[in-house]
Amino acid sequence: MAEFKEIIMPFKNTPGGIIQAFHAVQKKINYLPENAIIDAAEVFGIPVKEAYGVATFYSYFSIKPRGKYIIRICESAPCHVAGAAEIIASLERELGIKIGETTGDGKFTMELTECVGQCQATPVITINGKPYAGVTPQQVAEILAEYE
Amino acid sequence: MAEELRLVLKNFGKINPLKVEDYLSAGGYKSLEKARSMNPLEVVEVMKKSGLRGRGGAGFNTGQKWFFAHNIQADEKFVVCNADEGEPGTYKDRIIMENDPHIVLEGMAICGHAIGATQGYIYCRGEYPGVVDTLNTAIAQAKEKGLLGDFNIEVRMGAGAYVCGEETALIESIEGNRGEPRFRPPYPPVAGLWQKPTIVNNVETFANVAQIIEKGAEWFAGIGAKSFPGTKVLTLTGDINKKIFIEVPTDTTIKEVVFGFGGGIPDGKKFKAVQIGGTSGGFIPEEFIETTIDFDSMRKIEATLGSGAVFVIDETRDIVDVVTRIAKFFEHESCGKCAPCREGTMRVHLLMDRINDGKGSQADVALLKKLSRVMASACLCGLGQAAPTPVVTTINHFGMDYHAKVQ
Ligand SMILES: Cc1cc2nc3c(=O)[nH]c(=O)nc-3n(C[C@H](O)[C@H](O)[C@H](O)COP(=O)(O)O)c2cc1C
Ligand code: SF4
Ligand code: FES
Fold it and tell me: Measured between CB atoms, which of A22, A58, A122 is closest to B161?
């Protein structure tokens, strides 16, 4: 697909720019399709397996398709003791999916994450990077409604 | 009661971070001007004498580090700001960058002058897209006004890997590779980014630089603990009344932090333990809370100051469960490059899980202690070396909790 090359090309002359290029691809489609990885390897002049190795190293990158909105739940110790498990249960109930899954309509994906640096109020979730700190199980439905 | 001392955060809430004029009217960029009127070695000497030590965890003397890079002849050198801030319970670098980005840029530019570098990078974690925007705005404004002279700064965004906070892994990541730590030596000040002399310092470290140049080494050396002078920004989480961030002199005690600034434990419960410095820090029992937070005092009680995260747990918490969660973190974040860590973190998690589920034995606890010793000496980087610390310190201080869970 030519469109990936278009996204990747602007980073060609940035030393070490492949990670920035992957960020740009994911900004468009929320994951890194095989073609994007192959294109990146070509643009940066490295073996495909190396480009693949970079794509799979970082937890922010996914080589599997994901939903439009990615919900990440922090399970680091401060969020853990503040009741992250209850937030997960509440999200699972609302969305009918488990961690790592995507809703049937392709809208939401649920993932676990470690600390996202918003621990001024715990537990914390993020939706497409937007943090919600000090979330209660009761608030979950309300937050999801923002993404209708 | 002890009071806050806001030096790194002196502009917090007082200036608009998106307006360089605000920073300028607060005296900003005067230190860079002053530094540039001095010869580079003089700047390095001031930094050394100030006694400033890294705020990213390892506590290395900043001026000494700069001296290594200053001393080497090279066609190119780099200044890298470590803004990867992945340590659970930590958000102090975000607070600094969000509210006063120029204080970081100024510190980096002073470093550039001191070591002879014209290119800087800020490696900011992927979880902070808003901070990346703020930094880029600040850089553009500083450039436009010609404040940075010939010093360039580029922001790179991380992609969610805790190990990339380790300086050589961070360098690999800027180079576009998997973020796996390098074998050392050589250390970055000798051969870092693209094998050129490179200074990697934490955000808070750079944020201290301008004031040291402005007010002098003696002034700074006189604040807080003698061997680790200055202030530290702390972030309070867990079972504590006030989940806030504070900046205090380094001779403040843990007790003052938790019970003074933090307002103690909620719901009339009792203190059980505090883990300082992030997820690889030791758990500290009540008997040690009169200890001051500086690097060396913390070392003496087998704890760390680390990133300045302060995670409190109350008497009702199951500490074995908390440590099991932490063990999972390390298994997940181990980059897998070296076997003692790759296998060790997996084993530690397995054993902790077993004990936590009530299926473990005293032999498992003994095995954990042995495994910890092996990992501390055999792992390639700080991640694996420190991963067992929460396990060992809780076995040592809260052995009864383990005892109650094993068969
Ligand atoms: C696993 C691991 C994670 C680290 N994470 C960070 C981090 O997020 N931020 C940071 O400044 N230093 C981190 N460090 C420490 C860096 O390797 C390095 O010592 C530091 O950036 C040096 O800067 P300083 O001297 O100003 O502290 C980490 C170290 C290890 C071993
Ligand atoms: S100690 Fe762990 S994180 Fe560090 S290099 Fe070895 S495997 Fe990677
Ligand atoms: S511990 Fe959950 S956001 Fe920091």
Answer: A58
